[in-house]
Structure formats: C-alpha cells, structure tokens
Amino acid sequence: MRAKSTNIVEVLKRLVQLLLVVIGATFLLSLLLRLLPVGLKELYVTGLFEEDRQRQIKELGLDRNAFSYYIHWLWDFVRGDFGPIVLPGGGGESVASHVGRALPKTLQLVFYTQIFALAVAIPLGIFSAYRAGRRTDRFVSYGLFTAASIPNFVLGLLLALIIGVKLEWLPPLGYVPISESFVDHVRSMILPVLALGIPLIASYTRLLRTDVIATLREDFVTMAVAKGLSDRRILFTHVLRPSSVTLLTSAALNMGALIGGSLVIERVFSIPGLGTEIGLAIFGRQYFALQAYVALVAIGYVIFNSVIDVFVGLIDPRTRERRNA
Amino acid sequence: MSIRATKRPGRTRRLAIFTGIAVAASVIPAAAQVSASSAAAEKPVKGGNITVGIFDQVLTTCYSPNVPNSALGVLKTVYEGLVEKSSDGKFVPFLAKTITSSPDFKTWTLTLRPGIKFSNGEALDAAAVVLNLQALNGDYYLKNTATAAHTAGSGIPFTANLRSVAASGTDTVTMTLWTSQVDWLDTLYASGRFFMRAPSTIKDKTECATKGVGTGPFMFDTVTPTNVKVKRNPNYWRKDKAGTQLPYLESITFDVQQQPTQRLNGLRSGKYAAAQFTSAGEVKQILSVQESKNLGSVSSKDVFYPTWWPNQAIEPFNNKNARLAMASAWDNTTYYKLRNCFKGKCLGNIPTSIVGKDNVMYNTKGFVKYDVKKSKEYQAAYKAETGKDLTFQINATLSDESLNNAKAAQQIFAKAGIATTINQEDGATQVANAFPGLAAAAAGKLNPYQAYAVLLFEGEGTGFILPFLQQNVFSEPGNNAKTERSPLLPIAGTALNLTRHKDTALTDLLYAAKQDITKARPAKLKALTKYLQENAVVIPTPTLLYTYGFGKKLRGYDTFELAAGKTGIPMTNAGINWTGIWVSK
Known about the structure:
The complex is a heterodimer.
Chain A: H1 2-34, H2 40-44, H3 50-59, H4 66-78, H5 95-130, H6 135-149, H7 152-166, H8 182-216, H9 219-226, H10 231-243, H11 245-268, H12 274-283, H13 287-315, H14 317-324
Helix pairs in contact in A: 1-4, 1-13, 5-6, 5-8, 5-11, 5-12, 6-8, 7-8, 7-11, 8-10, 8-11, 11-12, 11-13, 12-13, 13-14
Chain B: E1 2-3, E2 49-54, H1 69-75, E3 83-85, E4 91-93, E5 96-101, E6 107-112, H2 126-137, H3 139-143, H4 155-158, E7 162-168, E8 172-177, H5 184-189, H6 199-203, H7 205-210, E9 218-224, E10 227-232, E11 251-256, H8 260-269, E12 274-278, H9 283-291, E13 296-299, E14 304-310, H10 320-329, H11 332-339, E15 341-342, E16 345-346, H12 372-386, E17 391-396, H13 400-415, E18 419-424, H14 427-434, H15 437-442, E19 451-458, H16 481-484, H17 489-492, H18 504-514, H19 521-534, E20 539-540, E21 546-550, E22 554-555, E23 582-583
Parallel strand pairs in B: 2-11, 2-12, 17-18
Antiparallel strand pairs in B: 1-13, 3-4, 5-6, 6-8, 7-8, 9-10, 10-11, 12-21, 13-21, 14-19, 14-20, 15-16, 22-23
Helix pairs in contact in B: 10-12, 11-13, 18-19
C-alpha cells in the first residue's frame, strides 16, 4: 500500500516537472520571439492603412505585453489552437492543420527508426560483449565506428543514389501513407530509416556492450553459470535486463535528437513531416508556427524521458529502490 | 525553347539571388534529334497519376507573396490568363477571344470566349474579368480595405497604367489606360503571372490562399507548401484536335525537393515522371538530364537576364564612379566559366547587353566591358570624391551553391582590388527586404542592399523590364492617378524601384520610349539601354535557363497548343503547360 502511494507521488512529481519544463521552454521561446532583430510587427503586419494595421496587430496578439501574450498563447495552445501561418494579407492555414498532417509522419519515422536501431543494436551489443576483445568484437566495433562517423544526410544521399537510383530496389524519395498502400509505405520508409538508424545502431551497440560486459562480471551471472544455464539464456534472460538502463535512457534522449535529425532526412527524402515543417518555418520566418513546433518537440522530449524513467524503474528494481530510499 | 536532343539549356529562378545564383544558359549546338520519349506517333491516352519534382514551395494559391518559378508552374495548372505567348514571341488571346486596341493604344477591348467556366461552376464572364483586373490594380482593395488586403500585391505597381476597367454585356471588357502603351498585352501576360481567379475566391482570403479556383485543366486537391496535388478538371473548356476532352492526366502531384541531386535521383528512378531544374546552381544536373539517353528534356529560351542592381540611395553606389568601377571589375567570362560550365559544357550566355539579342531593347552601345585598369581609375575617382576605398556587400542565400556563386563574385571583384563581404541570409528574407511589400514601402523601408543580384528582366519585350526601372510608377507623364489612387501612390509607386534611383534623365528616356507608339519606339528603347549601361544602372550577368527533365513514358511536352491555334512556348521559367501531357502505355 505504501509502495503504491509512493508510486503515485512519483508520477505526480513527474507531471509537475513536465509542466514546469514545458512552461519554461515555451515561455523562453516566447521571449526570444520578442528579441528578434526584425520585430514581429514589422514582419507580419502588412496592412497598408492604419486601421488594417491595428486590426492585424490585435489579431496576432502583438498589442499585448510579453507575459499577457504568453498566457494567451498557452491557453490557445492547450486548446489545440497553435496560431496561424501568416501570409501577407492573411488567409493562411492554421499551424494546427500543418501539425496534424506532419506529426504522424515524423512519429512514424522516429518510431520505425528506434525499432530498427534497437532491433539491430541489442543482439549486436550482446554479441559484441560476449565476444569482447576478440576479432569479431573488433570487427563489429570498427564497422560501427565507421558508420557512426558518417553524417546521416550523407548516408541518406548515398543510400538514395545506390539503392534507389543505381539498383532501383527502393524509391529514393517520397512518402506513401499506409492508407494508400502498406507495401509502398514500408518501401518508402526503408531508406530514411536506414539513414537515421545506422548511426544510432553504432551508439546503442557501444552502450549496451559496455553495460553487458559490466553485468557479466556480477556475482549473479557467476551463479547462473554455476547452475549450468546456457549462455544464450544467461545473456538474454538475466544479463540484458539490468544492462538495458543506459540503452533505454539513451533511446529516450535520442527521441528529441531524432526529431532534429529528421529535419534533414525528411528534406532529403521528401517526407512532409514535422522536421520539414520546422525547416519551412525557419526559412519562411513563420515564428508563430516555430513556437508551436518547438513546444511540441519539448513536450515530446519531456514525455519520452518521463516515461522512460518510469520504465527504467520497472525493469531495474534497483533504481526504484534507490529512489524510494 | 529547345528539345532535349537539341541540347539547348535551361533557365533559372525568377528572383534568383545571383550572388547566390548560378545563372546560365549557353546554347550548346548539337545534333538535332527528337527526344526518344516524345518522338513516336502515338495517340494520346487518357489517365495517369504522376509525381513531379520542383524546387519552390507553394506558400499560397492566392496573390501574395509573389510566386517563384516552379511554384508558378503549379498554379498555372489551375489558373489561366487572358493572353498567352506564342512560340514566335507574340502575345495572343487565350481566355480572351479577341483583344483590340484603339489607334492611340489607350483603350483596349477584349471579348471572352463563350462558355468558359471556373472549375467550381462560376462563369468567366465580363464581370469576373473586371473583378480580377480591379483586384490586380488595387481598386478592389481600395473599396474593401478591411477584407481585401490579400489582393494588394505587386500587381498594383505593375498595372499602374490601368485607369479603369468596365464590362459591356457579359463578354466584353474595356480597359482604359492613363497613357498609350503598345505592349499592354505584355503587361497583362506579366510573365504568366496574371491569371483569372473565380470571383468567390477573390472575395474570401482563406479560400484564395488554400483552395484557389481557376479555369485551368486541373483543380487543387491537396495543398501544402511542399506537396501539391492537382486533379483533372472534368469540365475543362478545351479539347484536343481529335475532340478528346483535355487534360489527359488524371492527377499531378508536385513534390518540392530542394536538393537538385535528389530531384535528379527521383527522375532517374522513376519516382518522378518529370522534374524541373534551374541553371542557378543546377548546371550539373541539367547537363546530366540532357545527356541521358533514358530521359527527355525541354529547356527554356534564352530570355532571362539576371543583373546586379547597385543601390543608388545608399553608399557607395550613390556615386556613379563606384558603379562604373563595379561594372568594369565584373568579369562575366570568368564568372560564366566558374559557375555556368561543367566539364567543358556550359549553360546560358555571356551578356553583351543588359538584355539578350532577341529583346527589343538589345544594344551593345554603352556596355561596360571588363577592364581592370579602368575599374581602378574609377575607384581612384571615387576615392578622390569621397575619401573612401570602394567596398561593398554582396548577398548569398543559405545554400552552398549560392555561397559558391558569391565567393566567385568576390574573387572577381578582388582581382580588380575591390574588397567585398558576403551577407548570407535565407533567400526569402532577402527577397522580402529587397522588395519590402507595400506596407513596408509605405513606411519608407526600401531595398537595404548595396548590390543585389537578381533575375528581374525577361522576355523579348519590355512589359517585364520597364516597371523595375521606373522611379515611381505613378509619376509617368499623363498618369493622373493622384486623385483616384491617392491612398496607394506613396505606397505602391516605388515598390519595384530596386535601384532606388531618382535619375530624371533616365526617367525622361524611359517614358519617351514607353509611351511611343510609332516606329521610333525601338530606337528610343535602345537609347534607354545605352543610358542604363553607360551609367551602370544595372550590370548584367550570364543569362539563366530552366529545364524540365522527363521520364521515359511521358509524352506531349514538346508542344503546347494554344487555344487560338498557334503553338505556345513549351518551356518557361514556370515550367511546361500540362494540358496536353500524357503517359504512354
């Protein structure tokens, strides 16, 4: 009973932390918008006559002070109103409609990339640790080190050229929704996932390898060996779980980085996701949109980290116990 | 234009930030052979959904901001103009059936083709044309300031000469100009930018921006900045020679891919049925398309003339010696070799005038040739007058190619002893600063750049050249818009004056040529060119080309049949006309 209430308190603490981080990040961003070298009024208020200009200023909330502006923005944001894409004369779409179109594509890309990277890195990391110091371990390490040193956009262009154009195995660009064709969807996502995932595999494998090597030195592993359990069972049943904490934390931290990485990869492969939208907002000086996108990324980042914290506690009781103590 | 096999190159982007723009277009003479993808005498087949790679975002389907090249091509699948340009360079009626002028070229009357409707069912009648023209010249905005700001754009200064427009009956429209203008049709064409929109979408800013409706062969299906799908307009007004309803294609998805390598990859792999390229930084890709046996291509005519625009309102180019020093230091040949050529093959031409040989203003007199010695003399004269060394800033966008262009320019000026710095900003910001929009212009915020390189001049005529050289478009003798357009005068008048000049001699020459309706007009235009060149008002750079590459199965891109029976220009800066394109089985 006591443990249960402690868990609830823990989750509540996490939620408060989440709120504080999101509010802090978005408020700072909102202040930054006011410090732009080109003022928002100069940028967005296009009315030719004073009456028009005043109306536009009011519509965009630029007549408010920073705090009042932020409170209104936050209220709109939680209600799903992320502001306008500002066009001269008005008439642009809402940011929310852009988010609605783009976010699922980015989440798909990030999700597939994580699944792919973990699916490859986990067996590879365990194998590498199991064969630590031997030729195969060195071969895997060097190979991964090389892969990690190639920027993902270069990797993306190379994959597109070789696999997409020369070999014609997969489309070198474009996005196909699942609703249109599942097979084509998968085919369209393979190259971007590879481009984003290969550097991740290198990082994950190295992390897991180190933790597995450390775990293999634990007493309970010696006990398991003494009991005559198979190497495979020891590695995957007893060693993997306690060795996964760093990997999972890294995976969560990488969710934010992946969205950043997807900014480039989405543009290389013509995937109209959030990364593409962020790029468009930056180059098109759509700062209201950018504020919403950054807020969404920040929220995603915090949520992923909070979830992973809870998850780490579940898979490694030692962490939970340390917290409770 | 030229078909792939003729190996005539392409062109570039409209507002090509040249310091950041590789311009180019040399005519590479080559064996004439018909592109494999367009040769066979096949019959057009209906149907097909294709994807096309382009390089400009489609921010809006409405008036502003000004639509760049390949995005304009997307809009032109949905919208059509009153006039089109035929392959011989003449302007011919398109949505209009006839257009005639009064002897003094001050009154122009057009009649409409009967029965044309917008894709939403609204009629393209005289009232719709009047509304469209009033939206262009600002009259509609002046009557509806609270709701029509989305219509107030560069059309206002461009159509400053339009005094009034009125409907007679349902199919006749009369346009009355302030002053005589023999090339009014060139203005109405506006490089393919003035098209007719359904009245309901003009009146609703959101509809205008997101779901524009035109009379064209396609209708917008889904529109995002990086991906636009247009679907067949089942009630399109045109049929082919065999009586088959046009267009042939069921849908086209335009995909924005700014990386030229990836655009080429998409084309080669078949993901893209076609893709557009610009010689501004995409020379390698264009040559690759043109040399490919598996791809067809079509390139634009050599009628895009990018230039440097020294800013006469600020230092150092408020000084004539500074401008002449810059012009004499500018080595077009070296720049051409550096940026327009790849492995011995080049795109575009080295200029010998501010416009190309096909343009009525072409004149080599007064053209400032590359001469380091003279440049140094001008620099010395500048220093004697101002006490300063000549130095200025040039612009580059954020792309590598743009920066490489700027660096090439920097090296060229350095050879003549002129130090330059590079200002790297995103292209949209630069365009917004250089062409600040009507509101910013009203607040006195005009072009801030010392020397901006950009593609503004184009075509064989003057309609898309002279407006950029006018000090104030409303200051033309005979244009008494001051009463009727007074709220717009200070705002829109100088919005296109990129050099920010106040040169009365230039203004006098310009209006003398512009208003002339006699045979003396070409000579007056050439005199204007001479003045512009010898005073280094603008400094030309190698010309730009645009190219479309096509996959094996696409047909019909080498001809563009006009409604009047003539043949149109297959390829412009906006790309091709998609009405007659079909996919071979």
